[in-house]
Amino acid sequence: MGVRGRIGYGAGALAVLLAASGCGSGGPADRPPVSAAPLTGSAPAAAPSGGGSSASASAPAQDTVPAAAWAKWGLKPLPKAPAPPADRPIKLAKTGTVPVFSEVPTADKVVFITIDDGAEKDPEFVRMLTDLKVPITMFLTKDVIKADYGYFKPLQALGNSIQNHTVSHPQMSRIPAAQQKAQVCDDQAALTEQYGTAPYLFRPPFGDGANTPALNTAVQECGPRAVVLWRESMQIHDMQYQAADKKLRNGDIILAHFRGPSELKGEKMTEMFGELLNRIQEQGFAVARLDDYIARPAG
Protein backbone atom coordinates (compact mmCIF):
# COMPACT_ATOMS: atom_id res chain seq x y z
CA MET A 1 0.00 0.00 0.00
CA GLY A 2 2.93 2.33 0.57
CA VAL A 3 4.01 5.00 -1.87
CA ARG A 4 7.46 4.13 -3.15
CA GLY A 5 10.02 6.69 -4.09
CA ARG A 6 12.96 8.83 -3.13
CA ILE A 7 13.71 12.30 -1.96
CA GLY A 8 16.59 14.08 -3.65
CA TYR A 9 18.30 17.18 -2.28
CA GLY A 10 20.65 19.41 -4.17
CA ALA A 11 22.54 22.65 -3.59
CA GLY A 12 20.51 23.46 -0.51
CA ALA A 13 17.16 23.08 -2.25
CA LEU A 14 14.65 20.35 -1.54
CA ALA A 15 13.60 18.48 -4.68
CA VAL A 16 10.69 16.13 -4.14
CA LEU A 17 10.87 13.37 -6.71
CA LEU A 18 8.30 10.81 -5.62
CA ALA A 19 8.00 10.92 -2.05
CA ALA A 20 6.02 9.84 0.85
CA SER A 21 8.67 7.34 1.76
CA GLY A 22 11.73 9.40 0.90
CA CYS A 23 14.87 7.66 2.05
CA GLY A 24 12.90 4.77 3.45
CA SER A 25 11.83 2.69 0.50
CA GLY A 26 11.82 2.42 -3.24
CA GLY A 27 14.58 0.57 -5.07
CA PRO A 28 16.96 -1.98 -3.58
CA ALA A 29 19.49 0.71 -2.71
CA ASP A 30 16.97 2.28 -0.36
CA ARG A 31 16.60 -0.76 1.88
CA PRO A 32 19.05 -1.62 4.63
CA PRO A 33 20.00 -5.27 5.05
CA VAL A 34 17.63 -7.30 7.21
CA SER A 35 20.53 -8.26 9.49
CA ALA A 36 22.62 -5.36 10.67
CA ALA A 37 26.35 -5.61 11.15
CA PRO A 38 27.42 -7.00 14.55
CA LEU A 39 27.62 -4.57 17.43
CA THR A 40 30.94 -3.78 18.97
CA GLY A 41 30.30 -5.25 22.37
CA SER A 42 33.73 -4.83 23.92
CA ALA A 43 33.08 -1.46 25.48
CA PRO A 44 31.80 -1.50 29.05
CA ALA A 45 28.38 -0.09 29.76
CA ALA A 46 28.59 3.56 30.67
CA ALA A 47 26.22 6.18 31.85
CA PRO A 48 25.10 8.32 28.92
CA SER A 49 27.24 11.35 28.49
CA GLY A 50 28.05 13.81 25.76
CA GLY A 51 26.13 14.25 22.52
CA GLY A 52 22.58 13.41 21.68
CA SER A 53 20.66 15.66 24.10
CA SER A 54 18.33 12.88 25.13
CA ALA A 55 17.19 14.70 28.28
CA SER A 56 15.28 11.52 29.09
CA ALA A 57 15.61 11.96 32.83
CA SER A 58 13.60 15.18 32.72
CA ALA A 59 11.32 14.34 29.78
CA PRO A 60 7.63 14.07 30.71
CA ALA A 61 6.49 10.48 31.20
CA GLN A 62 4.13 9.29 28.51
CA ASP A 63 1.95 7.51 31.08
CA THR A 64 1.01 10.90 32.53
CA VAL A 65 -0.79 11.83 29.31
CA PRO A 66 -4.55 11.94 29.98
CA ALA A 67 -6.94 9.99 27.78
CA ALA A 68 -8.44 13.29 26.64
CA ALA A 69 -5.14 14.25 25.01
CA TRP A 70 -5.15 11.08 22.92
CA ALA A 71 -8.83 11.61 22.06
CA LYS A 72 -8.04 15.16 20.92
CA TRP A 73 -5.95 13.65 18.14
CA GLY A 74 -8.41 10.83 17.43
CA LEU A 75 -6.14 8.19 18.94
CA LYS A 76 -6.22 5.45 21.52
CA PRO A 77 -3.54 5.57 24.24
CA LEU A 78 -0.39 3.58 23.63
CA PRO A 79 0.73 1.02 26.20
CA LYS A 80 2.99 2.42 28.90
CA ALA A 81 6.66 2.06 28.08
CA PRO A 82 8.73 0.20 30.69
CA ALA A 83 11.41 1.91 32.71
CA PRO A 84 14.70 2.26 30.77
CA PRO A 85 16.93 -0.78 31.27
CA ALA A 86 19.71 -0.45 33.83
CA ASP A 87 21.99 -2.46 31.53
CA ARG A 88 21.53 -0.77 28.19
CA PRO A 89 21.71 -3.39 25.43
CA ILE A 90 23.61 -1.33 22.86
CA LYS A 91 27.04 -0.32 24.10
CA LEU A 92 29.06 2.14 22.08
CA ALA A 93 32.83 2.48 22.18
CA LYS A 94 34.70 5.77 22.23
CA THR A 95 36.97 4.84 19.31
CA GLY A 96 37.25 2.31 16.53
CA THR A 97 34.81 0.88 14.02
CA VAL A 98 31.24 2.01 14.65
CA PRO A 99 28.41 -0.54 14.80
CA VAL A 100 25.53 -0.64 12.34
CA PHE A 101 22.13 -1.65 13.69
CA SER A 102 18.47 -1.62 12.69
CA GLU A 103 16.92 -2.94 15.88
CA VAL A 104 17.66 -3.04 19.59
CA PRO A 105 18.06 -6.42 21.32
CA THR A 106 15.47 -6.30 24.11
CA ALA A 107 12.76 -8.38 25.72
CA ASP A 108 10.70 -5.20 26.23
CA LYS A 109 7.67 -4.92 23.97
CA VAL A 110 8.78 -1.57 22.61
CA VAL A 111 9.61 0.01 19.28
CA PHE A 112 11.49 3.20 18.46
CA ILE A 113 10.35 5.98 16.12
CA THR A 114 12.92 7.87 14.07
CA ILE A 115 12.02 10.77 11.76
CA ASP A 116 14.33 11.91 8.99
CA ASP A 117 15.47 15.00 7.12
CA GLY A 118 13.22 17.86 8.37
CA ALA A 119 11.52 18.86 5.11
CA GLU A 120 8.08 19.52 6.62
CA LYS A 121 7.88 21.97 9.50
CA ASP A 122 4.26 21.76 10.62
CA PRO A 123 3.55 23.62 13.90
CA GLU A 124 0.66 21.21 14.53
CA PHE A 125 3.14 18.35 14.79
CA VAL A 126 4.98 20.17 17.58
CA ARG A 127 1.67 20.60 19.39
CA MET A 128 0.86 16.93 18.85
CA LEU A 129 4.11 15.72 20.41
CA THR A 130 3.77 18.26 23.21
CA ASP A 131 0.36 16.77 24.01
CA LEU A 132 1.20 13.08 23.58
CA LYS A 133 4.83 12.93 24.79
CA VAL A 134 5.65 10.20 22.26
CA PRO A 135 9.47 10.00 22.05
CA ILE A 136 11.16 10.31 18.68
CA THR A 137 14.73 10.53 17.39
CA MET A 138 15.35 13.10 14.65
CA PHE A 139 17.97 12.57 11.94
CA LEU A 140 18.28 16.01 10.34
CA THR A 141 19.78 17.18 7.04
CA LYS A 142 21.49 20.58 7.10
CA ASP A 143 20.40 21.86 3.68
CA VAL A 144 16.79 20.94 4.41
CA ILE A 145 16.55 22.63 7.83
CA LYS A 146 18.99 25.56 7.65
CA ALA A 147 16.27 28.07 6.77
CA ASP A 148 14.44 27.23 10.01
CA TYR A 149 16.68 25.58 12.60
CA GLY A 150 14.34 26.91 15.27
CA TYR A 151 11.43 24.67 14.33
CA PHE A 152 13.13 21.62 15.82
CA LYS A 153 14.13 23.22 19.14
CA PRO A 154 10.72 22.72 20.83
CA LEU A 155 10.84 19.07 19.77
CA GLN A 156 14.35 18.78 21.22
CA ALA A 157 13.15 20.43 24.44
CA LEU A 158 10.66 17.58 24.86
CA GLY A 159 13.63 15.22 25.23
CA ASN A 160 13.93 14.16 21.59
CA SER A 161 17.52 13.92 20.42
CA ILE A 162 18.85 15.35 17.16
CA GLN A 163 21.16 13.17 15.10
CA ASN A 164 23.18 13.34 11.86
CA HIS A 165 21.68 12.73 8.39
CA THR A 166 24.26 14.47 6.10
CA VAL A 167 24.34 17.94 4.57
CA SER A 168 22.54 17.38 1.25
CA HIS A 169 21.21 13.79 1.32
CA PRO A 170 23.32 12.06 -1.36
CA GLN A 171 23.68 8.34 -1.94
CA MET A 172 26.89 7.95 0.00
CA SER A 173 28.34 4.98 -1.90
CA ARG A 174 28.22 7.03 -5.11
CA ILE A 175 30.47 9.86 -3.92
CA PRO A 176 34.21 9.77 -3.08
CA ALA A 177 35.40 9.12 0.45
CA ALA A 178 36.41 12.76 0.97
CA GLN A 179 32.91 13.92 0.04
CA GLN A 180 31.36 11.33 2.33
CA LYS A 181 33.42 12.72 5.19
CA ALA A 182 32.41 16.29 4.34
CA GLN A 183 28.73 15.30 4.31
CA VAL A 184 28.97 13.82 7.80
CA CYS A 185 31.37 16.31 9.37
CA ASP A 186 29.66 19.45 8.07
CA ASP A 187 26.24 18.28 9.25
CA GLN A 188 27.79 17.31 12.59
CA ALA A 189 29.25 20.79 13.01
CA ALA A 190 26.03 22.58 12.06
CA LEU A 191 23.79 20.49 14.30
CA THR A 192 26.20 20.79 17.23
CA GLU A 193 26.32 24.57 16.87
CA GLN A 194 22.57 24.99 16.49
CA TYR A 195 21.34 22.51 19.09
CA GLY A 196 24.10 22.54 21.68
CA THR A 197 25.02 18.87 21.64
CA ALA A 198 26.99 16.73 19.20
CA PRO A 199 25.01 13.97 17.47
CA TYR A 200 26.24 10.52 18.43
CA LEU A 201 24.23 8.60 15.81
CA PHE A 202 24.33 8.76 12.02
CA ARG A 203 21.87 7.60 9.38
CA PRO A 204 22.97 7.40 5.74
CA PRO A 205 20.37 8.55 3.20
CA PHE A 206 18.52 5.57 1.70
CA GLY A 207 20.55 3.32 4.04
CA ASP A 208 23.11 3.46 1.24
CA GLY A 209 26.71 2.52 2.00
CA ALA A 210 25.93 1.71 5.63
CA ASN A 211 28.30 -1.25 5.78
CA THR A 212 31.12 0.13 3.64
CA PRO A 213 34.57 0.88 5.09
CA ALA A 214 34.62 4.36 3.54
CA LEU A 215 31.43 5.45 5.26
CA ASN A 216 32.39 3.83 8.55
CA THR A 217 35.67 5.72 8.52
CA ALA A 218 33.90 8.99 7.74
CA VAL A 219 31.49 8.50 10.63
CA GLN A 220 34.34 7.65 13.03
CA GLU A 221 36.33 10.73 12.03
CA CYS A 222 33.34 13.08 12.32
CA GLY A 223 32.14 12.04 15.76
CA PRO A 224 29.01 9.82 15.67
CA ARG A 225 29.52 6.40 17.29
CA ALA A 226 26.92 4.28 15.48
CA VAL A 227 25.07 3.98 12.19
CA VAL A 228 21.33 3.49 12.63
CA LEU A 229 19.12 1.83 10.02
CA TRP A 230 15.54 0.60 10.37
CA ARG A 231 13.21 -2.39 10.17
CA GLU A 232 9.99 -0.69 9.05
CA SER A 233 9.24 2.49 7.11
CA MET A 234 6.04 4.48 7.52
CA GLN A 235 4.05 5.44 4.46
CA ILE A 236 0.85 7.50 4.41
CA HIS A 237 -1.47 5.02 6.10
CA ASP A 238 0.59 1.91 6.73
CA MET A 239 4.09 0.59 7.16
CA GLN A 240 6.40 -1.34 4.89
CA TYR A 241 7.97 -4.26 6.73
CA GLN A 242 11.19 -6.10 6.12
CA ALA A 243 9.83 -9.15 7.96
CA ALA A 244 7.79 -11.49 5.76
CA ASP A 245 4.99 -11.76 8.33
CA LYS A 246 4.56 -7.96 8.33
CA LYS A 247 4.65 -7.68 12.10
CA LEU A 248 6.55 -5.54 14.54
CA ARG A 249 9.09 -7.19 16.81
CA ASN A 250 10.58 -6.12 20.13
CA GLY A 251 13.18 -3.42 19.60
CA ASP A 252 12.35 -2.57 15.99
CA ILE A 253 13.43 0.84 14.74
CA ILE A 254 10.80 2.51 12.56
CA LEU A 255 11.62 5.11 9.91
CA ALA A 256 9.32 8.04 9.15
CA HIS A 257 9.89 11.44 7.55
CA PHE A 258 8.98 15.06 8.10
CA ARG A 259 6.38 15.23 5.32
CA GLY A 260 3.34 17.33 4.45
CA PRO A 261 0.33 17.39 2.13
CA SER A 262 2.32 17.73 -1.10
CA GLU A 263 4.05 14.39 -0.41
CA LEU A 264 1.26 12.67 1.53
CA LYS A 265 -1.50 12.98 -1.08
CA GLY A 266 -3.11 15.88 0.72
CA GLU A 267 -2.76 14.58 4.28
CA LYS A 268 -0.94 16.38 7.07
CA MET A 269 2.07 15.13 8.96
CA THR A 270 -0.06 14.81 12.09
CA GLU A 271 -2.40 12.48 10.23
CA MET A 272 0.46 10.33 8.98
CA PHE A 273 1.98 10.21 12.46
CA GLY A 274 -1.41 9.31 13.93
CA GLU A 275 -1.66 6.40 11.52
CA LEU A 276 1.81 5.28 12.59
CA LEU A 277 0.74 5.33 16.24
CA ASN A 278 -2.40 3.38 15.33
CA ARG A 279 -0.33 0.63 13.69
CA ILE A 280 1.88 0.43 16.78
CA GLN A 281 -1.08 0.44 19.19
CA GLU A 282 -2.91 -2.27 17.23
CA GLN A 283 0.03 -4.61 17.73
CA GLY A 284 0.29 -3.85 21.43
CA PHE A 285 3.65 -2.10 21.46
CA ALA A 286 4.84 0.87 23.47
CA VAL A 287 7.14 3.55 22.04
CA ALA A 288 10.39 3.93 23.96
CA ARG A 289 13.17 6.48 23.68
CA LEU A 290 16.07 5.12 21.63
CA ASP A 291 18.63 7.02 23.74
CA ASP A 292 17.48 5.09 26.83
CA TYR A 293 18.65 1.79 25.30
CA ILE A 294 22.11 2.97 24.22
CA ALA A 295 25.12 3.20 26.54
CA ARG A 296 27.40 5.93 25.25
CA PRO A 297 31.09 6.14 26.12
CA ALA A 298 32.01 8.51 28.90
CA GLY A 299 33.99 11.61 28.10
Automatic annotation (TrEMBL):
What keyword terms does UniProt attach to this protein?
Answer: Hydrolase
Entry GO MF terms: hydrolase activity, acting on carbon-nitrogen (but not peptide) bonds
- Database matches in SUPFAM superfamilies: Glycoside hydrolase/deacetylase
Q: Which PROSITE patterns match?
A: NODB (PS51677), PROKAR_LIPOPROTEIN (PS51257)
Compositionally biased residues, Low complexity: 36-61
GO biological process terms on file: carbohydrate metabolic process
NodB homology domain sequence ranges: 109-288
Give the source's domain of life in one word. Answer: Bacteria
Check the record and name the InterPro entries matching this protein: Glyco_hydro/deAcase_b/a-brl, NODB_dom, Polysacc_deacetylase_ArnD
Span list, region Disordered: 27-61
Q: Which PANTHER family match?
A: GLYCOSYL TRANSFERASE-RELATED (PTHR10587), SECRETED PROTEIN (PTHR10587:SF134)
**Listed name of the protein:** Putative hydrolase
> What organism is this sequence from?
Kitasatospora setae (strain ATCC 33774 / DSM 43861 / JCM 3304 / KCC A-0304 / NBRC 14216 / KM-6054)
Upper taxonomic classification of the species?
Answer: Bacteria, Bacillati, Actinomycetota, Actinomycetes, Kitasatosporales
